[in-house]
Specification:
The complex is a heterodimer of chains A (259) and B (258). Chain A has 259 residues and is of the alpha/beta class. In chain A, helix 1 runs parallel beside helix 7. Chain B has 258 residues and is α/β, with parallel strands linked by helices. Chain B has a single domain, classed as TIM Barrel (Alpha-Beta Barrel), CATH 3.20.20. Helix content of chain B is 34%, strand content 17%. Classes of the chains: A alpha/beta (259), B alpha/beta (258).
C-alpha cells in the first residue's frame, strides 16, 4: 500500500522531508514570543494574519516579514460555521456566504496586508479549517477560489501530514502544534521524515503550553534547536515548500474507469 | 455576539438538548461490546457501516438493525485524501468524480438494504472529508449527500450542532474515542447548557488506551447518566435530524451579505 512512493519525487539538496511551522490569527504572543525564538535559530515561520489583530504589534509584524517570515492570508472576518455559539454571527457564518463575497473578502485581506505589512500573501489558511460556503444542496467548496489566488491553501485539524506526490496544494493538511510537548513534536517529525513527507503544524498563541490554543514556548525552543541540528530536514515557509512541490510534481489524469 | 444562540427552537417533550452516539466502519467490537451496553440501557446508537466490514458479524448486525439501532451509509471504499499512505490511486478523493461518488453511495445503500434489511437515511463522511478532485476543479460532495440522505455527519469538529443553524448535510460530530467519562461529561454538560445537539463519533469499543477506541466503561457511565436525565433526548442521528429538519427553516442569506 505504499503507492505514494511509486512516483519519483525528491526534496532539494538530498533532504529527507520538509517541515513548516505556522501560527494563525496574528495573536500578539505569536510575534512577541514566537518570532524571537524562531529568529534565534534562523528558522522562518508562516503566520496567517487577521488584519484586525495586528494593530498594536504592526511594527513587529513588519519587521518579521522583512526578516523572511511568511505572512499569509487568513481572511478579513474569520468566517466559520454558525454552530460556534456566541462567536459566529449571521454576518460571518459560512452558511450565509456566497463564493462571490468570499473572493471579494479574501482579495481585500490581501490588499490590507500588502498595504500594512508590505508583502502580498501567497498562501492562505482556512479559518476553522472549513472550506465551504452555503448549505445543503446549494453548498459550494471555496477551495477552487483559493487555488486561483494562492500558491498554497493550508487545511487544519488533519490526521496526517502531506504526501508531496499526492497532496493538493490548495488544501495541504496541517496538524496540531498547540499544547504538544517537544517529544510529541519530535516523534511526529521523525515519522514524517521516514515517510519523506511534508509536516505542517499549526498553532495560535506561544507561551504556556497548558493554556488553551497555545504552543509551548519551551517545546518550540527545543524543536527549533532540533531542526537546526538536523541538516537532512528542510524547515521553511509554507510557500517555499509548496513552490518546490508545484515545480516538481505533475498529477496524472483520472482514468475513464474511475470517472 | 449572541445571535447564533437558539431562541425559538424547542426540543420535543420539553427536552433541553439532544445526544446521538455513533460509530464508524462496522468494527467487530461495536456489536461485540458496544451494542450490548446500549441495549442494557435501552439506548439506540447510530452505526455507519462499511459493507466490507460487516461480514465478520453479519447476524449480529442484522439483530442490531432489527432492534432499532440506526444503520447509516459510510461509502463503499472509504475514500479519503491520498495523503494517507493507506489510500491508493483507486480510492483517494483527489482522483474521484461526483458521478463516481454518487454511484458508490447508492451501491452502498443497496448492499446495506439487502444485507441488513434497512435503507440508510444518514451518511458519515469518511475521514470527515467532503471533497472530490483537486485545486481549481475540486468540488464539495456535501450537495450530493444533501440529495441522497436526511442527515450527513461531519467529523473531527470543534463544537456540537446548534439546531437553529446547523446544516443537516454536514452536522458536526465530536471525537468519542480515547476519552474518559469526565471529559465526555464536560462536553455533554456544555451542549445541554446551550440547548444543542451533541453527536459523538467513535470507532472501536473497549479499552480506552487502545487506538481509535471508545472506552467501554465511559460508555456505560454515560448511558447510566442518561437514565437519570429525562431532560436529555438520546436518539439516532436520523431521528434527531428529522425533528430539526421539520422544525427549522433557513431563510435565504440577505442580499447585503452576498
Amino acid at each position: 500500500m505504499k503507492n505514494k512512493k511509486s512516483i519519483p519525487f525528491s526534496w532539494p539538496e538530498g533532504r529527507r522531508g520538509a517541515v513548516s511551522l505556522c501560527w494563525d490569527d496574528a495573536r500578539p504572543s505569536s510575534v512577541r514570543i514566537g518570532v524571537p525564538i524562531l529568529d534565534e535559530f534562523g528558522i522562518r515561520g508562516t503566520f496567517y494574519a487577521l488584519p484586525r489583530n495586528m494593530g498594536r504589534e504592526l511594527k513587529m509584524w513588519r519587521a518579521a516579514a522583512v526578516r523572511g517570515h511568511e505572512i499569509g492570508n487568513h481572511t478579513i472576518k474569520h468566517p466559520c460555521m454558525g454552530n460556534f455559539i456566541g462567536w459566529q454571527t449571521p454576518e460571518t457564518m459560512l452558511e450565509n456566504y456566497t463564493l462571490g463575497r468570499m473572493e471579494k473578502e479574501i482579495l481585500e485581506a490581501n490588499r490590507v496586508l500588502s498595504a500594512t505589512v508590505g508583502v502580498k500573501p501567497t498562501s492562505f489558511a482556512y479559518p476553522c479549517a472549513q472550506t465551504y460556503v452555503g448549505r445543503g444542496t446549494t453548498l459550494r467548496s471555496y477551495i477552487p477560489v483559493v487555488a486561483k489566488h494562492f500558491e498554497v491553501g493550508r487545511a487544519g485539524f488533519s490526521e496526517t501530514y502531506a504526501s508531496p506526490e499526492r497532496c493538493d496544494l490548495a488544501q495541504v493538511p496541517s496538524m496540531d502544534f498547540d499544547g504538544q510537548t517537544f517529544e510529541q513534536l519530535r516523534d511526529l517529525v521523525e515519522k514524517a521524515m521516514v515517510d519523506r513527507c511534508w509536516l505542517v503544524v499549526t498553532g495560535h498563541e506561544v507561551g504556556d503550553g497548558r493554556v488553551k490554543q497555545t504552543v509551548s514556548a519551551k517545546a518550540l525552543e527545543k524543536l527549533c534547536a532540533y531542526l537546526r541540528r538536523r541538516a537532512d530536514i528542510w524547515t521553511d515557509t509554507v510557500t517555499a515548500v509548496g513552490r518546490h512541490i508545484a515545480a516538481t510534481v505533475k498529477h496524472p489524469p483520472i482514468p475513464a474507469r474511475l470517472r | 455576539m449572541k445571535e447564533s444562540r437558539p431562541r425559538t427552537f424547542c426540543w420535543p417533550e420539553g427536552k433541553r438538548a439532544a445526544v446521538s452516539l455513533t460509530w464508524d466502519d462496522a468494527r467487530p467490537s461495536q456489536v461485540d461490546v458496544g451494542v450490548p451496553i446500549l441495549d442494557r440501557f435501552g439506548i439506540k446508537g447510530t452505526f455507519y457501516v462499511l459493507p466490507r466490514n460487516m461480514g465478520a458479524r453479519l447476524s449480529k448486525w442484522r439483530r442490531a438493525a432489527a432492534n432499532g439501532h440506526e444503520i447509516g451509509n459510510h461509502s463503499l471504499n472509504h475514500p479519503c485524501t491520498g495523503n494517507f499512505d493507506w489510500q491508493t490511486q483507486e480510492t483517494m478523493l483527489e482522483r474521484y468524480t461526483l458521478a463516481r461518488m454518487e454511484r458508490e453511495l447508492r451501491a452502498a445503500n443497496r448492499l446495506l438494504r439487502v444485507a441488513l434489511g434497512v435503507e440508510p437515511t444518514s451518511y458519515a463522511y469518511c475521514c470527515g472529508q467532503n471533497f472530490v478532485g483537486r485545486g481549481t476543479r475540486l468540488k464539495s460532495y456535501v450537495p450530493l449527500v444533501a440529495k441522497l440522505f436526511t442527515v450527513g455527519q461531519a467529523g473531527f469538529s470543534e463544537t456540537y450542532a446548534n439546531p437553529l443553524i446547523c446544516d443537516l448535510a454536514q452536522v458536526p460530530s465530536i471525537k468519542f474515542d480515547n476519552k474518559a467519562y469526565g471529559e465526555l461529561r464536560e462536553t455533554l454538560d456544555a451542549a445541554v447548557a446551550d440547548g444543542c445537539w451533541l453527536i459523538l463519533m467513535g470507532h472501536e469499543v473497549g479499552d480506552v488506551r487502545a487506538r481509535q477506541t471508545t472506552s467501554a466503561s465511559a460508555l456505560r457511565d454515560l448511558c447510566s447518566h442518561f437514565g437519570r436525565r429525562p431532560d436529555i433526548w438520546v436518539d439516532t442521528v436520523t431521528a434527531v435530524g428529522r425533528h430539526v429538519g421539520a422544525t427549522v427553516r433557513h431563510p435565504p442569506a440577505k442580499a447585503r451579505v452576498r
